[in-house]
Amino acid sequence: MSELILDANFDRLCMTSVVDEISYQKYSENINNISYLLAAKNNIKMKRVGWQSERYLNNIRLPLLSRFIFGERNPETPHLLVQVSEKHCRFEFKGHPLNYKHYLCARQWIAIITGEHISKCFDPKRMTVTATDIAIDLKAAISSLTVDQRRSQKSGAFYNRAGGLETLYTGMSRSSKRTVLYDRSAKALDAGLTPYDKMITRVEIRLKNRMKLDSFMESVDLNKIYGSIYLYSLDEIVESEMLPETYLSLIKTIGIKPILQSMNDSERRRFRKKIEPFEVDILSCKEIEVALRTAINNISYLFEGSQLIKSRYRDLKKQFKKEYGFTRL
Are residues 233 and 251 in contact, defined by beta-carbon separation less than 8 angstroms? Predict the structure, then answer.
């Protein structure tokens, strides 16, 4: 793997299914029961486990055998958010990295909430993937990088109070694809967590394309997903002395995208050709593709499958009961 790359995985995976009135009532009742049991076990109020919101009448954020604080967002910890309305049930897998054990644990929670065999309530042909965040961690300072997502119309940068760069983004939050670079240590500090002991920049590709889960697992085209995203070494661009200081100053402050948007088509092509030698070509790295394919394959642990999955699920249920005190309501 490239010396810059530390890890690649999903940081977020969201999917929904349609529910009928009977299922809605059952799921809601079971979420309330789980909230009561977990609140009693952890000596906390029920609303720190399950709560209501305007869009989803029943919400619950559940641990996946990882360090977890009820009532908090747990931004760096793998967990499962389940949200139920009268028409839909939404599942959000959040945290990095998500491995097969987390999906096995989620499978147990989903079986308890639905009160059904997992194959009945979680059919990959009926589940719709609505959002996916692909996360790649790089051993590099965010100030040493800049990003261009072609055909995106918006970009920006965020700084901390001391004037240090924390986040670069290109693409709108509601776009089907958005690329975000951020300083992981700064984000950890913002969340009240211990910062990392080295410079780590996360590249997140946030997708909002709707597709059935079985199609997502079988035919998602990773090359197509990140084919329009170009990452450049700003340090090398500076060292080359090929760009005027005015351009460098702007790129350091607001990123490369606004510079490109100010040019006509011909100027933009020449500029991109000029900085092509400084591209940090990590997205086409074979190891990245293998890591993300493994992440996709891990989703299969939510379903019935090979003898290996069944064996690992039996082992996990024992650990689950020891940790949370129950495997059924």
Answer: no
The pLDDT value given to residue 277 = 94
Spatial distance between the Cα atoms of 17 and 246, rounded to a whole number of angstroms = 51
Task: Check if the beta carbon of residue 304 is closer than 8 Å to that of residue 111.
Answer: no
**How many angstroms separate the CA atoms of 152 and 155, rounded?**
8
Q: Is the pLDDT of residue 151 over 70?
A: yes
DSSP codes, 256-299: SHHHHHTS-HHHHHHHHHHHGGGB---TT-HHHHHHHHHHHHHG
Provide the pairing of β-strand 88-94 with 5-18. antiparallel
Residues 38/49, Cβ–Cβ less than 8 Å: yes
Q: Which residue has the tokens 């948007």?
A: 261
Q: By C-alpha distance, which of 242, 260, 94 is closest to 170? A: 260
Distance CA 86, CA 23 (A): 9
Q: Coil, strand, or helix at residue 59?
A: strand
Q: What's the token pair of residue 287?
A: 């190891």
Question: Any residues with CB less than 8 A from the CB of 320 and at least 6 apart, and which?
Answer: 65, 105, 108, 327
Residue among 151, 156, 157, 159 at smallest CA distance from 175? 151
Phi, psi of 9 (to 5 degrees): -170, 180
Per-residue pLDDT reduced to its tens digit, 239-262: 999 989 988 998 888 888 888 888
The domain ranges of the chain are 11-131+302-324, 140-199+228-282
Bridge partner list, 203:
136, 181
Q: Which own/partner pairs from 284-288 qualify as long-range (CB within 8 Å, at least 24 positions apart)? A: 284/223, 285/1, 285/2, 285/5, 287/1, 287/2, 287/5, 287/8, 288/1, 288/5, 288/8, 288/136
The pTM score is: 0.90
Q: Which of 230, 311, 319, 241 is nearest to 272 (CA)?
A: 230
Contact in structure between 146 and 176 (CB atoms under 8 Å)? no
Alpha-carbon span 310 to 45, nearest angstrom: 35
Q: Which token pair is 67?
A: 């360090």
Tokens 């958005």 found at? 178
